[in-house]
Amino acid sequence: MTTINIAKDYSLFTGLRHCNISEKSGEDFYHTKLNTAFKEAFEKEDKLTIILDGVDGFAPSFLDEAFGNLVYDFGLTNVKAYLEVASLLEPQWIDMITQQTYPQWEKRREKNIFPKKTITHKPWFRIVDSKIECKKWI
Amino acid sequence: MKKLYTTSKYKRYHKKYCLKLQHRKKYKKYVSPLKNKKKNNLFHQVTAPIDFRFLDNIEACAKFFSDLRKEDAIWEKNGRKNVFIDIRKIEKIDFSTAFILSAISDEFKDNHIILRGSLPENEECLKYLSDSGFFNEKYDKNGTKFSNTEKTEIMIFEKGCGILSIEHMKKISDTVEHISNHLVNEKRPNLDLKSMLKEICGNSIEWSYAFNQQWSLGIKYEDDRIIFVAIDLGRGILDSLYRKFQKKLADIFTLKSDIDILMGAFDKKYGSSSKEINRNKGLPGIKSSFNAGLIKKLVAVTNNVMLDFENPERCIKFASLRRTFKGTLYKWEMDAECLNKRVL
């Protein structure tokens, strides 16, 4: 099982939704950490655990953008199967992610409403026709 | 093409003309803008109401701030833009007002506009403004700089512009920990409050379209409570709200007022202007912090509406469209009891 502790492996201070409005944003976390880590877990059929505790307060938009993009690129079924979000101190974020972010972003995926990218990112992984592809999608 | 003066008659005429021009070219004496008031129709002074408390005399204060930020208030002299305020007669002032005035003053500074005016005659009001740091980087009538008010334990202002940096986040974090130290003599992380403050700053940066994406957070420490004021001088929530056509139509038919529409935005009834389905988590988050008891006496003022979450009877829609508040202001209080509450 692979684990990412956001406070230790990414940053103690996390920002807002997009890179153009804050440092250490949800968009940045997704493209620098979460996308590749999830792809590896998916290929190994392993579980990826994201630990929220230890971060100095989350903005809900950070979490929504990070985990929402994952649903958009890999689909809700795969995310539910291979991802676990853990938090003892702030369990309300797990509720928000599973009850709001997941269904809303799955709807976006079905409707093909592209996620907004505010800076140019390196190529990233996405499942297309059950195959993982890596490119600059936007 | 330059005219050639070939005949003696025109040469004489030209010489005389040049001398006349030279004679005319004199440096103008500096005339105080106040003395020049009658000569120049463009001079305009914005007068503050006597009761200069934003949340208690909201329409008059909103009109003052609205007039102050209008193009008409700018008086150009020697290529410099000036705005004159008259706050001599004010008798009452509160934290929100001092804070808004300070934010507007910063906005003027960024736009290279000089804020000029008189000092309050009332000593308490003068001291209040001085403590709030309003006179920092300002000069008296003799051109002497006012002494800067250092950050005191009474009032603290955190301001930022551009993107939310890690430095800003650290400052917010330190401030929140200082709050619990003040209220219960113990440093607590208070993650819910940090989340809320980040979201307020984020809303200001992303949606307000304020000059330079500015946001300001003011904190006033009192014996057993702390007052917070967060503002941006942008478009305001009602102007940045996205309502679907059917909802807009339904609101018209059901005679929904701006108060109900703004309350609806806090209840997640409307989308954000990005029209993305997963957005609009910030405003409901602020309301859930209030509902959970994490903060008390929450008031939000934006455009032409004041929402009082604790006393809904105090909610106001401004009578005149001239008196709208361009921007968004949140004011809330915290005491020791709030520190034990959590957002679930």
Question: Which features does this protein show?
Answer:
heterodimer; A: 138 residues; alpha/beta; two-stranded antiparallel ribbon; 49% helix; 16% strand; globular; B: 344 residues; alpha+beta; Transcription Regulator spoIIAA; Heat Shock Protein 90; 2 domains; seven-stranded antiparallel β-sheet; four-stranded mixed β-sheet; 15 strands; 35% helix; elongated
Q: What global shape of chain B is seen?
A: elongated
Mean pLDDT of chain A: 92
Cα shape of chain A = globular
Which blocks of ≥5 consecutive residues of chain A have pLDDT under 50? none
β-strand amount of chain A: 15-25%
**Largest sheet, spatial ordering of strands of chain B:** 7-8-9-15-12-13-14
Strand content of chain B: 15-25%
Largest sheet of chain B: 7 strands, antiparallel
CATH topology of the largest domain in chain B: Heat Shock Protein 90
Number of strands of chain B: 15
* Protein structure class of chain B: alpha+beta
Along the chain, the helix and strand elements of chain A come as EHHEHHEHEE
Total helical elements of chain B: 10
How many domain units of chain B?
2
The radius of gyration of chain B is 25 Å
Describe this structure in words.
The complex is a heterodimer of chains A (138) and B (344). The longest helix of chain A is centred in the C-terminal third of the chain and has 21 residues, at 91-111. By secondary structure, chain A is of the alpha/beta class. In chain A, strand 4 (124-128) and strand 5 (131-135) form a beta hairpin. Chain A has helices at 6-10, 26-44, 60-74, 76-82, 91-111, and strands at residues 2-5, 48-51, 83-86, 124-128, 131-135. Chain A contains 5 helices and 5 strands, in the order βααβααβαββ. In chain A, the strands form 2 sheets. Chain A has a 3-stranded parallel beta sheet. A two-stranded antiparallel sheet of chain A has the order 4-5. With 344 residues, chain B is an alpha+beta fold. Chain B folds into 2 domains: 26-137, Transcription Regulator spoIIAA (2-Layer Sandwich), CATH 3.30.750; 151-344, Heat Shock Protein 90. Chain B is 35% helix and 21% strand. Chain B has helices spanning 8-24, 58-68, 95-110, 123-131, 166-184, 191-207, 237-240, 245-253, 258-266, 282-291; strands spanning 45-47, 51-52, 74-77, 80-86, 92-93, 113-117, 155-160, 215-221, 225-232, 241-242, 271-272, 296-303, 305-308, 316-317, 325-335. A 7-stranded antiparallel beta sheet of chain B has the order 7-8-9-15-12-13-14, with helices on both faces. In chain B, strands 1, 3, 4 and 6 form a 4-stranded mixed beta sheet that branches. In chain B, a hairpin with a 7-residue loop joins strand 13 and strand 14 (316-317). In chain B, helix 5 crosses helix 6 and helix 6 (191-207) runs antiparallel to helix 10. Chain B is elongated and about 95 Å long. The relative contact order of chain B is 0.11. The model of chain B has no long low-confidence stretch (mean pLDDT 80). Classes of the chains: A alpha/beta (138), B alpha+beta (344). The A-B interface holds A 11, 13-18, 20-24, 56-61, 64, 68, 89-90, 92, 96, 100-101, 104-105, 107-108, 113, 116 and B 163-166, 169-170, 173, 176, 189, 191-195, 198-199, 201-202, 205-206, 213, 274, 276-278, 281-282, 285, 343-344.
